[in-house]
Write a structure and sequence with these properties.
Layout: H1 2-20, E1 40-48, E2 59-66, H2 71-74, H3 79-90, E3 97-105, E4 108-111, E5 121-122, H4 128-139, H5 156-176, E6 185-192, H6 201-204, H7 211-215, E7 222-230, H8 268-285, E8 287-293, E9 313-322, H9 353-356, H10 372-379, H11 420-426, H12 442-448, H13 468-474, H14 486-489, E10 492-497, E11 508-517, E12 547-555, E13 564-570, E14 587-590, E15 596-597
Parallel strand pairs: 1-14, 2-3, 2-6, 6-7, 7-8
Antiparallel strand pairs: 1-11, 3-4, 3-5, 9-12, 10-11, 12-13, 13-15
Helix pairs in contact: 3-4
Length: 609
């Protein structure tokens, strides 16, 4: 009797529950063959702009002066020497402002640093006696011993020395910064009164004598070559020698990047103008400014723009990307090793790890320095790449694909999820997370299909009325019309200011990025059946995802200036097939201290079995 009563009560209870909670169930048969619908997570937390004292940008100025004998005629009062001293005295008296003065004459280069070496020195270290000594050394310089004739003028040699000094200083600065970006701004002031003794326009204006100095800006905050033309003689130049009516023979004027040659004495005033034109073009090539001092105007360097040591930065972009999931995150597609090559794709025409015979757990299967996804991408565009070569130690330490030095294989100096050798062929900077300064990391742009080495965020190659900026931020494909599915597949951003500036002068923000879809990545089973147990192999369960979040800040005083990028990389979020999502509440929590410059370590490394 009691048992029958219990059965009836249980049945009634079950009916009541069914009627009162029609949307709930104790067991759903769909679990047998379908995954739960909610496979998304959100990232939420706080980030801040850097304080004005947090990001220090050293200002380094190199003054290069022509010291040939003609300077005694074109600058008899020595105003160039006083200009160097005035520059030192006018600059902000801070330890982060540096100067180096060099003189050049013929093939001779002299460095007038206090230490006598090719080293930038803080202007705070200059005493009044040092300044007076510098002025005298500039005015009384003579080529020592049997050095080359001071009457000759050579531009290419000092420019080559300038390149070497800045390049070495960049390398030393980066070494001292422990791999962080070199944020120094270099300004060269190149002063001369004339032209090279032997025509050097092919190297100066058509070649890379100036251009390569400017190109060093990719390794620093900026590098500029400013030029100064000096012509301040005591006696005016007679113009009666210029017979334009009779015609002046100007040979060598066939190239648009050369200055036409004039015979000696043909027209002194025109030669002076041509000298100024040469230096002006050099400034254009060097990204700097040109100053021309004539008509008894004293030389000064005070109008050149050197920038500021301490700068305010404003928030630019917040971007999230799941490297384990392709754009749009289809349920059946995943990229377990985040190499840009899917584990499997049902379309036989789409390459994947299975078709290529590569490992879905290894970024670079054949250890040749190029990741599998990059090799397949460029092979499809005619490159000589094979992602699954057999390792052969006799072949320079790995495979035979060209272009990657052995010492760079497996290296990612900026930790942007692109190997250094990958960046070489992609065309990005292996020392910067964001090569084109558009606020989106190189790896995000390349893996989603935009151009990481050029500013293309405003373009819309698939004509779906979403530009690349929107597609990259929402983790959709810039080359596929997918705007109709944004409500389902697009990442969603909320960013709010957290009050005013804090005590450190930072503006902080709270944020939430939601609807980040997870992928069903593969478990690592490479050591299955290994007699030794595979102790040297790394095993990991299924479903782990690789989520990368970056913030970019732009200088408030220069909208086109180099931005600051900080990143957070999270590798423990998990969504295995038939399992339970982790974190269970679907929220990855981040603090401002989690966003790091330069190399970004994974927040939690899975334990080795």
């Amino acid at each position: 009797m009691k048992r029958a009563t219990r059965v009836v009560l249980a049945a009634v209870t079950a009916v009541a529950m069914t009627l009162s909670c029609t949307d709930s169930y104790l067991y759903d048969q769909r679990r047998e063959d379908q995954l739960p619908r909610d496979r998304t997570v959100a990232v939420e937390g706080e980030f801040c702009t850097p304080s004005t004292n947090e990001v220090i940008r050293p200002i380094k100025i190199l003054v290069a002066m022509d010291a040939s004998q003609s300077m005694r005629v074109t600058d008899p009062n020595g105003s160039r020497a006083q200009a160097a001293v005035d520059l030192i005295e006018s600059l902000p008296q801070e330890d982060e402002v540096f100067i180096l003065v060099m003189l050049f004459a013929g093939s001779t280069t002299a460095w007038l640093s206090r230490s006598g070496t090719q080293t930038f020195e803080s202007i705070n270290s200059y005493t009044q006696a040092d300044k007076d000594n510098l002025r005298q050394r500039i005015l009384t310089f003579t080529a020592p011993g049997n050095m080359a004739n001071r009457d000759s003028t050579d531009f290419v040699k000092p420019l080559s020395d300038i390149y070497a000094v800045i390049n070495r200083d960049l390398a030393d600065s980066r070494l001292n910064a422990m791999g962080d970006e070199t944020r120094a701004r270099y300004s060269v002031i190149f002063l001369s009164d004339g032209q090279p003794t032997n025509n050097q326009d092919d190297e100066l204006l058509c070649g890379d004598a100036v251009r390569r100095i400017r190109q060093l800006k990719d390794l620093a905050d900026d590098v500029k070559v400013n030029t100064v033309h000096v012509f301040l003689p005591d006696q005016p130049v007679a113009s009666s020698n210029c017979d334009f009516d009779g015609g002046v023979n100007i040979p060598g004027g066939g190239s648009s990047c050369r200055i036409p040659n004039l015979p000696p004495g043909a027209c002194p005033l025109l030669i002076v103008n041509q000298n100024a034109e040469r230096l002006s073009r050099m400034a254009d090539l060097g990204g700097g400014d040109f100053r021309d001092f004539r008509n008894n105007e004293p030389i000064n360097f005070l109008n050149f723009r050197f920038g500021q040591v301490r700068r305010n930065f404003i928030f630019d972009k917040l971007v999230a990307s799941n490297f384990s999931a392709p754009a749009g995150s289809p349920l059946d597609l995943a990229d377990t090793d985040s190499d840009g090559l899917l584990d499997f794709h049902p379309d036989p025409m789409v390459p994947d790890e299975v078709k290529e015979g590569t490992s879905p757990w290894v970024l670079d299967t054949d250890t040749d320095g190029f990741s599998d996804g990059v090799e397949v991408y460029f092979r499809g565009r005619g490159g000589n790449f094979t992602p699954n070569q057999v390792f052969d130690p006799t072949l320079d330490g790995g495979g035979v694909d060209p272009g990657c030095p052995p010492e760079l294989r497996g290296v990612d100096q900026d930790c942007d999820a692109l190997l250094d050798c990958d960046e070489q062929i992609i065309g990005t900077n292996a020392l910067r997370m964001d090569s084109d300064d558009d606020g989106i990391a190189d790896s995000v742009e390349f893996k989603l299909g935009s151009q990481p080495s050029s500013k293309d965020l405003d373009q819309d190659p698939d004509n779906d009325r979403l530009n690349n900026r929107s597609e990259l931020m929402m983790h959709t494909d810039p080359l596929v019309v997918d705007s109709e599915n944004l409500s389902v597949i697009g990442y969603r951003y909320e960013t709010l200011k957290d009050g005013g500036l804090d005590g450190q002068g930072r503006q902080c923000f709270t944020f939430r990025i939601s609807n980040i879809s997870l992928a069903n990545t593969l478990p690592d089973t490479r050591d299955a059946g290994n007699p030794d147990g595979g102790a040297d192999l790394y095993r990991r369960g299924a479903g782990y995802n690789d989520i990368f979040v970056t913030t970019s800040m732009r200088p408030a005083d220069d909208p086109t200036g180099r931005s600051i990028m900080r990143g957070f990389r999270h590798t423990t979020t998990r969504f295995p097939v038939g399992g339970i999502k982790s974190p269970h509440d679907g929220i990855i929590r981040v603090t401002t201290d989690d966003f790091l410059p330069g190399c970004v370590p994974s927040q939690v490394q899975p334990a080795t079995p």
